[in-house]
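Page 42, continued from yesterday. The earlier attempt failed because a stray header line got pasted into the input along with the sequence. Redoing it now with the clean sequence only.
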Amino acid sequence: MRVPIVCADERLRQYAQTFADCFSRPQYKHFVTVLLGLLLCRGKRTLTGLFSSVAVKTSVAALSRFLSEAPWKPSEVARRWRERFDHTLAPRVAQHHADHRAAQPKRVGRPKASVVTGYLIGDDSTCQKLRGKQMEGLGYHYSTTMGATVRGHSLVLSLYVLLGRRCPLTPQLYRQKKTCEAEGVAFRSKVELMVETIRDFAPLSDTHTHVLLDAWYSAKVIWKTARERGFDITSGLKGNRLVRIRDKGCRGGWQWLSLDAYAARLKEEDYTAMTWPRQDGEGRTVYVYAAAKTIQKLGRVQLLIVREKRDGTLTAPRFWASSDMKADAKALLAHVAARWDIEVLFADAKELLGLDHYQLMSAQALVRFWTLVLTAYVFLEEQRALLEHDWQQPISIGQALHEIQQVHWFHFLTWMQQQFRAGHNPATIFRQLAA
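This time it went through. Structure tokens are written below.
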């Protein structure tokens, strides 16, 4: 059953107005249609699925042209939702600094400066495509969900997290080198895409930025770019990465060992039992080892090794390096745990908003589709924060989506009641709403 566009909730209408200047008037109607369809669709969020969810005077072909041909820029749409994010968070940052200054004891000397840390989290996700061999940008990428290399598109995305609020940046399509050669476009590696993101990122004023990445992005050039910007950075490390340790039996008194070999030398008492941080309460117990070490190509860093205990035995270690040399083990663990937010974003965007449901042929169209999905996600993130404030409990994006859908279905029933009271024929209403 298609929901009339007039049933759109006022909150969604006001949110959509933020992006009105990014589109022409006909394009804006398509934008609102896609946005409402993404929120209300109960099936696959293909263009046909979106069209079947909203009763508007348009067609699937028109929606397709809106994504593939219409002259609008995803970067401009992302800039608008970032402006909303900054406008909302700036007063909270200022209040945090004011509260810190008020709480400082009056004494001689310079008071300790307050720090508000924002996390810039980068990662990639594979959108598997079993069909559509003629789609642009297709390649073979490793999927952590499938545990294998699959055919599909690779989405490179960054997420800005500040004071518990989340704001994605402009999505980017990664093409493999052979795909770029076949399609006649310039090749840019995932590392180059992430370097560009870090270099161009503009943090909110009076905040400190900490970059969080997994082991795929622990390249020297990425660390150099982050440090040149004055950012801290924490990234995962693979077990074959080399660490320098003191060894009197070696020439110069030092030797290089792989992280796997170094972890094998550690004893169980070298680890400290700690709680893995979670937003919704107490997390699981993990065993942590932290020490200042020199890592190959990264220099002097804080090395963090985390293991879990199962059946009385420590499991295989996981490794991270951080440039935050002043942080203790608890703070380092908090940095590492914060990276999980982008994994949750990918899962929510795929499961709840159909990030990987598209059947689009051009690379431009699929990047635009990703952008519109993230536009809907930002709206749900705003509503999630409001619900958390009202309900005084943690709220997920899924719960926020459920509440939004409930409101729209209530508007739909009210509209139906008004149509019948006005004497409209049920057959006429049915034809208008039939998918």
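Notes: The two ends are 6 Å apart (CA to CA).
Reminder to self: strip header lines before submitting.
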